[in-house]
Amino acid sequence: MALIIRSSAIHAAGCYTTSRIRKGSLVVEYTGPRITKDEADIKYENSPTTYLFGIGDGVTVIDGHGTAMFINHSCDPNCETEEIEGKVWITAIRAIPAGEELTYDYNLYDGDDDEASCNCGTKICRKTMYAPDEVKRRARAAKKAAKRTNRNGRSGAPAKKRR
């Protein structure tokens, strides 16, 4: 399968196909060294960009190297990821015409970035790369934290001056 890396409207560089891809096809393997999540956290502590892919139970990640690391996130993707015999493959979830950028939903589930802003621009964009369940979990946690803050008498709003 012929894939190329070039500029992307989604994020810097993207991965494009130069030939038609059939639905269900294995497109490319996500490759790179396998390291622990803890090692990755240390290695990329001050890095704004990583190409980490969590596998299995999330303890191990692939530190992306190669073509697949350039496949950008989309809320309306043309591909998905699949673990097959210990390898991570990008597979086509619909027919993809030649020249189209390859995308999959990152479904992020951790990280310090509250937003992880999405730039896919699709009609169904949820404005974040976090998985829908993670978005809900974070909203519940924020609501709980706000309730705790209000119970302790600190609302976060400036106090009114008395006259």
Features of this protein?
2 helices; disordered C terminus; alpha+beta; three-stranded antiparallel beta sheet; 17% helix; Beta-clip-like; 163 residues
| CATH fold naming | Beta-clip-like
Question: Which H/E pattern describes the elements?
Answer: EEEEHEEEEEEH
Structural category is: alpha+beta
Helix percentage range: 10-25%
Strand % is 25-35%
The CATH architecture assignment turns out to be: Beta Complex
Shape: globular
Instruction: Calculate Rg over CA atoms.
Output: 20 Å
Main sheet attributes: strand count, strand direction, barrel closure:
3 strands, antiparallel
Strand order of the largest sheet: 3-9-8
**What is the residue-averaged pLDDT?**
89
CATH class bucket: Mainly Beta
Please write out the topology:
Blueprint: E1 3-7, E2 13-17, E3 26-30, E4 34-36, H1 37-43, E5 52-55, E6 60-63, E7 72-73, E8 79-84, E9 87-92, E10 103-104, H2 132-151
Parallel strand pairs: 7-10
Antiparallel strand pairs: 1-2, 3-9, 4-6, 5-6, 8-9
Summarize the structure.
The protein has a single domain, classed as SET domain (Beta-clip-like). It is built from two helices and ten strands.
Description:
With 163 residues, the chain is α+β, with helices and mostly antiparallel strands. It contains two helices and ten strands. Strand 8 (79-84) and strand 9 form a beta hairpin. It starts with a strand and ends in a 12-residue tail after the last helix. Mean pLDDT is 89; it is low at 157-163. Helix content is 17%, strand content 26%. The strands form four sheets. Strands 3-9-8 form a three-stranded antiparallel sheet, with no helix packed on it. It has one domain: SET domain (Beta-clip-like, Beta Complex).
